């Protein structure tokens, strides 16, 4: 979809993966221009050990007022040099598989990462925030 908005209308909606995933990658796999608001992403696990609350592959993603908890990765971004990820007023808690290769928020060679007013806590061995973006603003 182009210009897709996924928003919980009253409070937050809690998405508990419980063994399910999209494309064996995570709870949501995002490509295109997408806004995600007021959603809790919990328990993403996939067979390669790299499951994400949101797997961001291309386009522009805005994440606002979301919680990422107990996932192998909170948000995992790909290598699209044109991609832009913005995270605002969100919480990342107890993410990571404990192997040092999974993180709360990680983007590889993406174009731009912006993080505002967000909270990172209780990471499991990996980074709280890891960026290989051309531009990173925190």
Question: What features would you describe in this structure?
Answer:
The protein has 138 residues and is mainly β. Helix content is 0%, strand content 51%. It has strands at residues 4-7, 13-16, 26-37, 39-42, 52-64, 67-69, 73-77, 84-88, 91-93, 105-107, 112-116, 119-121, 129-131, 135-137. It is globular.
In short:
The protein is mostly beta strands and 138 residues long.
Helix content, binned percent = under 10%
Mean pLDDT: 95
> Main sheet?
9 strands, parallel
Count the helices. How many? 0
From the helix content, strand content and strand pairing, which structural class follows?
mainly beta
Order of helices and strands: EEEEEEEEEEEEEE
Globally, the shape reads: globular
Number of strands: 14
Give the distance, in angstroms, between the N- and C-terminal Cα atoms. Answer: 28 Å
The low-pLDDT segments are none
As a percent range, the share of strand residues is over 45%
Rg of Cα set: 13 Å
Primary descriptors:
138 residues; mainly beta; nine-stranded parallel β-sheet; five-stranded parallel β-sheet; 14 strands; globular
Blueprint of the fold:
Blueprint: E1 4-7, E2 13-16, E3 26-37, E4 39-42, E5 52-64, E6 67-69, E7 73-77, E8 84-88, E9 91-93, E10 105-107, E11 112-116, E12 119-121, E13 129-131, E14 135-137
Parallel strand pairs: 1-3, 2-4, 3-5, 4-6, 5-7, 5-8, 6-9, 7-10, 8-11, 9-12, 10-13, 11-14
